[in-house]
Amino acid sequence: MKLDIPQLVADQHTFFASGISKPVCQRIKQLKRLKSALLQHEPQILDALHADLHKPSFEGYTSELLLVIKEINYMLKNIHCFATSHRVKTPWFYKPASSYIRSEPHGVVLIIAPWNYPLQLSLLPLIGALAAGNCAIIKPSEHAPHTARIITKIINNIFDPAYIAIVQGGIEETQILLQQKFDYIFFTGSTRVGKIIMQAATEHLTPLTLELGGKCPSIVHKDAQLDCAAKRIAWGKFLNAGQSCVAPDYVLVHNSQKQALIHKIQQYITQFFSNRPEASRDYARIIDERHFDRLTQLLTQGNIIIGGIHNRTDLYIAPTLLDNVSLDDMLMQEEIFGPILPIITYETLDEALEIISDKPSPITTYVFTQNKAIQKKCIKTVHAGSICINDTILQAATSYLPFGGVGMSGFGRYHGKASFDTFSYKKTLFNKSCWFDHNLRYPPYGRLQKFIQKFLSWWNSK
Fold it and tell me: Which of 7, 270, 290, 436 is 20 to 30 A from 223 via CA?
């Protein structure tokens, strides 16, 4: 039987209006239920991730399930503080009065998740939505069907669909969802689809968060610790077969270090995945044939230094390094989102920074250098959602740092407190006593006007 999406959204609006989702004790209870269900279904979750992406069990656990559990723990520890009204200063001439700021849930939210981290990127936003007191509908990606099914099973077993629900399906179901009135939309995916989501949101003036990605550069300066840089770039790039929005998309290396860096990255590819990555249990696969075909077309640009081997039947593309890539190639115009890493040299840091600034702002930028002045210059100059010094990926895997893009890589933040803030709005409270009421603000103003203007002018100049 086909799901009645308009009725589901209407039921959620009714549920939210009842106030059941708002008490903090209710939010805590539901977060604990979600955590318990996830731990109970751990083997099935890891099997589903492997079935969809050939994701190694360790990667599935550390980059997906563990991050979700840690986020729930963080919310449980801090939710009382986040949900408490905070008193702020009241101007003395308004007194006797008091002023407060209170976090309130938006209402019914829509979460549209991608396929590359299908568990994490479905449930991390949900945790923020739950903690803030919302109802939510999750639209998992149809390209990761095994994970979508296990998420649906978990959610349906513990939540009333009028509170938290799953809508499976493809483009048709997404279009129907976007025609409904939501109070907030959270989307993770490509810039192209993000534009469609944003256009649909404007129909109802719905606020939204877009997590999009982009071409994340890695600068390897001449004073970088090359062994460290190579190891961490290789790990960050080929994690999940390069299908991460924060994966290093291309490397800008000082020309004096190019050959040494390539040699060390090759060493770590072999160390991580052996001489035959296609046989490694620790190397993922491309999600489907469409993305595989797109990536293999990119392999025709530049010269293959390492890798390049691919097998469409197995959706396998070897960890690949490319040389002699032109900045005008398609490879450098769109996010690669796969295990292909162009190596580009530069002579001066300004040259590298100019290459980055000529492209849309990325969600993150990686800088490998021991020079504090170089680090500060990159932090000051590069327009990106985040800067990570001497490492990759980890800045996106903590509840203590807000995560998100800027410009074409998206807007809005989540993770930890940023998730709570994203899925709530700030209600201001002003409470004025009636026991004293001076007449200076009431007409007729008469001769008091000049006195008040002079007094306020003097006060504002202090």
Answer: 270
